[in-house]
From TrEMBL:
InterPro entries: TPR-like_helical_dom_sf, TPR_rpt, Ycf3/AcsC/BcsC/TPR_MFPF. TPR repeats lie at residues 154-187, 188-221. Gene3D superfamilies: Tetratricopeptide repeat domain. SUPFAM superfamilies: TPR-like. The keyword Ribosomal protein does not apply. Keywords: Repeat, TPR repeat. The lineage of its organism: Bacteria, Pseudomonadati, Verrucomicrobiota, Opitutia, Opitutales. It comes from the Bacteria. This is Uncharacterized protein. It holds the Pfam family TPR_16. It comes from Nibricoccus aquaticus.
Length: 418
């Protein structure tokens, strides 16, 4: 059972960790993606060490990083390949390094943190935040520099603000961020972090004002929207919170964290949330030298072959109208739409016992496609529930002119709201 930690539980730690470029990943009410989670149930049986490990988590939350690290170190001496503790230890060391004023000591702590996080990754740690932590370092374990502003004055003030916040000096941090805004009035991070300080102080309406301002500066970054949803949730305004979580998801739909917040909101409000992924395979389809190549498994049957052929037909006849001749080939939204529309046409027109038996294997997928097609949301379904790396590249352009459809899809198709 995971331990839910709010910003209130970890005020300065929450803020210090999400420094650019990682800071945008963190939120106070994140359940499965929270920065410091409870230890897995398997630890409960280890009565001698379980209490110590839980104490280490609490110490880390109280910014007593050295004490927490001592416990983690002792555990890792006995269990060097424990991925969970490697992650928690590396995370705590990262926090300690961020707050450490001595540069030499900070570099050493960062190096050890990187080593443990890298080992956790190699051993298969699935923490969603692990990639972001690793991306904060170069390949030698040195922390990457953070650019908050193109203004040298604002950049220096932001760095001072981060140090102050990491040390729990909220008043000083706030002053630095406000001075940074004087130098760079549309600085997203300063605006966001000022709101975060208000949130930490329980000044939720003020936090909302600042988060909304930050969101207006960078509408396609999910953090400010999500933080605003957290503040609305704190003030018992669930519908306003949901609207902001939806905004966060629309800003970055392929980032796992905004969706986790939607799931969390649904669970808290006892509402069923169901994504509409379908089990229809996605074979590779290529056109080279005017020849079509399909990586289709014959065992998948006629419907999958038809879907693949329809995509190939689009590539042969229509791709040139969408892509430059020398553009790198990729799976695209209109290609996928052509394939799925062919599936629906086949399903509607098929006759004969053999064909109907073939369609019965894909009934769930066909029902879903009919549902979203009838709602006028087939493209939205493809982008939100069926996108691969290629299709995802069409999302930004779609969002520019179809934001209402994205909101409607989440509310109507996922949440069942009409």
């Amino acid at each position: 059972m995971q331990k839910i930690l709010t910003r209130g539980s970890y005020p300065s730690m929450m803020h210090a960790l999400v420094s650019y470029p990682m800071r945008k990943l963190f939120t106070p009410w994140l359940i499965t993606l929270i920065m410091v989670t409870a230890l897995p149930p398997s630890y409960a049986a280890r009565s001698v060490n379980s209490d110590d490990l839980q104490k280490a988590l609490a110490l880390s939350g109280a910014k007593k990083y050295a004490a927490a690290s001592t416990i983690f170190d002792q555990w890792l001496d006995q269990n060097p390949d424990d991925t969970d503790i490697l992650f928690h230890s590396g995370f705590t060391l990262h926090l300690q390094a961020e707050a450490e004023p001595n540069d030499k000591r900070s570099r050493k702590l960062h190096r050890i943190a990187y080593e443990r996080l890298t080992k956790a990754h190699k051993l298969g740690c699935k923490e969603v935040l692990l990639p972001a932590l690793l991306n904060a370092y170069d390949t030698e374990g040195k922390p990457l520099s953070r650019e908050f502003s193109s203004s040298k004055e604002a950049q220096a003030l932001m760095q001072k603000g981060e140090k102050a916040f990491g040390s729990g000096k909220l008043n000083d941090a706030l002053a630095f961020y406000q001075r940074a805004l004087d130098q760079d009035p549309r600085n997203y991070h300063a605006t966001l972090f000022i709101g975060d300080i208000h949130f930490n102080r329980g000044q939720y309406d003020d936090a909302i004002t600042w988060f909304e301002k930050a969101a207006s500066i960078q509408p396609h970054i999910e953090t400010a929207h999500r933080y605003c949803g957290d503040a609305y949730a704190k003030t018992k305004r669930p519908q306003e919170a949901l609207a902001k979580y939806i905004d966060a998801f629309i800003a970055e739909p392929y980032n796992r964290i905004p969706f986790e917040m939607l799931k969390r909101w649904a669970a808290q409000n006892q509402i069923y949330l169901k994504r509409r992924a379908i089990n229809l395979p996605v074979p590779t389809v290529e056109i080279k030298d005017k020849e079509m190549s399909i990586g289709c498994d014959p065992a998948d049957g006629a419907l999958v072959l038809l879907y693949s052929l329809a995509r190939g037909k689009w590539l042969s006849e229509e791709r040139a109208a969408f892509f430059a001749e020398d553009a790198t080939p990729r799976h695209s939204l209109p290609e996928e739409r052509s394939g799925l529309e062919a599936v629906l046409t086949f399903a509607d027109e098929a006759s004969g016992a053999e064909l109907k038996e073939e369609l019965s294997k894909w009934k769930s997928a066909i029902d879903t496609l009919r549902e979203v097609k009838k709602a006028g949301l087939l493209d939205t379904f493809i982008l939100l529930d069926r996108a691969n790396q290629g299709i995802a590249q069409d999302y930004s352009a779609y969002r520019e002119t179809n934001r209402a459809e994205l909101v409607r899809y989440i509310r109507e198709i996922w949440f069942g709201q009409k």
